[in-house]
Design goal:
- It is a single chain.
- With about 100 residues, the protein is of the alpha/beta class.
- The chain has a single domain (about 5-95), classed as STAS domain (Transcription Regulator spoIIAA, 2-Layer Sandwich).
- The protein has 3 helices and 4 strands; from the N terminus they run E-H-E-H-E-H-E.
- It has helices at about 20-30, 50-60, 75-85; strands at about 5-15, 35-45, 65-70, 90-95.
- Strand 1 (about 5-15), helix 1 (about 20-30) and strand 2 form a beta-alpha-beta unit.
- Helix 1 runs parallel beside helix 2 (about 50-60).
- The chain starts with 6 loop residues before the first strand and ends in a 7-residue tail after the last strand.
Length: about 100
């Protein structure tokens, strides 16, 4: 769990071997109100099954809620944009707290 903002942080790798567990943990961890925060800045690897698990968790949120995704590595952000997943109304790619260069 993260403290500011409240949310969940994943570190390490997400792939086909653990993507179902990632999806299940997201479903359990997010409260039923408000916009949940997910920090993925410490991921060293995430394959398409991991991205799909995150997208599905966002899609399962109640209407009007969004998954606020923090620290998305550049390569994953590119995948999210090319597939159109970053444009889903249940997603927001957050860049808050990042230094501008």
């Amino acid at each position: 769990m993260t403290r500011k903002p409240d949310g969940l942080r994943f570190a390490g790798e997400i792939d086909i071997a653990n993507s179902d567990a990632v999806g299940a943990s997201l479903a359990l961890a997010f409260p039923v109100v408000g916009d949940p925060h997910l920090d993925v800045s410490r991921l060293s690897f995430c394959d398409i099954s991991g991205i799909r698990a995150i997208v599905q968790a966002a899609g399962a949120l109640a209407p009007g809620r969004r998954l606020l995704l923090h620290g998305l590595p550049d390569q994953l952000e590119t995948v999210m944009k090319v597939t159109g997943w970053s444009d889903l109304p249940t997603f927001e790619l957050c860049h808050c707290g990042e230094e501008k260069t």
